[in-house]
Amino acid sequence: MQKNKIKKRSLRSSKTTKIKKSETQQSSAKSQSALQGRNKKKKEKKKMEGDASTEKESSISINVKFGGTTIPITNLSPESTIKDLKTLLQPLTNVLPRGQKLIFKGKLLVDGMTLRASELTNGSKIMLMASQGLHQGDGPILKQAQTRPIVRENNVGKFAKEKMQVSVDKNRLERWKATGVIALSECNLKVIPDEVWACGTSARVIDFSNNAIREVPSQIGSLNSMQKLNLNANDIMDETISWKGVTSLVYLTVLSLNQNQLTTLPSTLGELTSLRQLHVANNKLTGLPVEIKFLTQLEVLKANNNRISTIPACIGDCNALTEVDLSSNLLSALPDTFGNLRNLKSLHLGNNGLKTLPSTIFSMCLQLTTLDLHNTEITVDLLRQFEGWENFEERRRLKNQKQLDFRVVGSAAFDEGADKN
């Protein structure tokens, strides 16, 4: 009996020991598992930090000082070249890459070197200096100086103020009707005089240039025999000109809107199918409408000194064009359809970001004798590779020789541009 009791106690003690041992092992396993979990998280965190560090090292950000402003350039690869950086700066500064001098820590950066080799790192500050003339559009984008408006006292008196409003006497009105010519340039006009509308179908030529006219009302359409309209150097804006009235002038051959505040040309421009000359220089135009293709009689297109970045491919349908001036814009390329302009004699493209020309420009434009490429990225070495270059060069030389024979100053040699004057 006593032995059985001892045996039972021994069994219970053994079970208790095994249970405690099992619990200890489970607790140990849990601790080990938790430790492994913490170590794994630490490794993952280190890996993430390492990846982030690698990502930071794979792209850098720099600041470029130019014209009183600081231009931030982000996400640059350390393996990209200084030339790549200059290309990025071109649209931000309007300075062509070959006109940019980048200086870092007193040293001039070389085009072929990488940012890493140039010792550029995150936050590096570079100074940009622009060579004179080597720009696109209207020139380098500089910080606008804040100036106080100058208020001048007007001491001309009441009589002079009244004279600013041009009075149209009966004799002048009759003369306008008889000649068909309304000449009111430099008359300090702020509005078009009502007497002009009285001329009706008699008006053929109107010159309102060099005034302060803001509005071109729909009544302009009542002068439906007009052939030439000059509105140069006024304050005309998109919303103040009645294009419906202007484009209803079906006999209009010359439209001149230079030096105004226009940003767009309407699609209805294509309705002026008799137009031979379109002058829209020195505005703020960003493009040309595709409807320009309907102007099949257009001979002269002058759209220089704007903000035009692309030319529609349908420009090739304007096959009567003989002179095109697109200088001082933001063009990086021309459409291949330029080769369709078989009558083109003069092409001005200076001060643009152009790097090449349409491949058929010399082989198909067989009348071309004047080409201005000053201050672009195009070089003579590149042009010599074009088909038809030799024939163009011969035509240009013959033209120059004729000018020299008549004692007209001209360039005898072709450089990066030609015959600018």
Characterization of this structure:
- The structure is a single chain.
- This protein is of the alpha/beta class and 421 residues long.
- It folds into 2 domains: 60-130, Phosphatidylinositol 3-kinase Catalytic Subunit, Chain A, domain 1 (Ubiquitin-like (UB roll)), CATH 3.10.20.90; 157-405, Ribonuclease Inhibitor (Leucine-rich repeat, LRR (right-handed beta-alpha superhelix)), CATH 3.80.10.10.
- The protein has helices at 2-58, 82-93, 157-164, 170-179, 243-246, 361-364, 380-383, 389-405; strands at residues 60-66, 69-76, 100-104, 107-108, 124-130, 181-183, 205-207, 228-230, 254-256, 277-279, 300-302, 323-325, 346-348, 370-372.
- The chain has a 9-stranded parallel β-sheet with strand order 6-7-8-9-10-11-12-13-14.
User: Span between N and C termini?
Assistant: 133 Å
**Rg, Cα atoms, Å:** 37 Å
Strand order of the largest sheet: 6-7-8-9-10-11-12-13-14
Fraction of residues in helices?
A: 25-40%
The count of strands amounts to: 14
Protein name: LRR repeats and ubiquitin-like domain-containing protein At2g30105
GO cellular component, one term: cytoplasm
Biased composition (Basic and acidic residues): 46-57
Pfam families: LRR_1, LRR_8, ubiquitin
Briefly characterize the structure.
The chain is α/β, with parallel strands linked by helices and 421 residues long. Helices cover 28% and strands 13% of the residues.
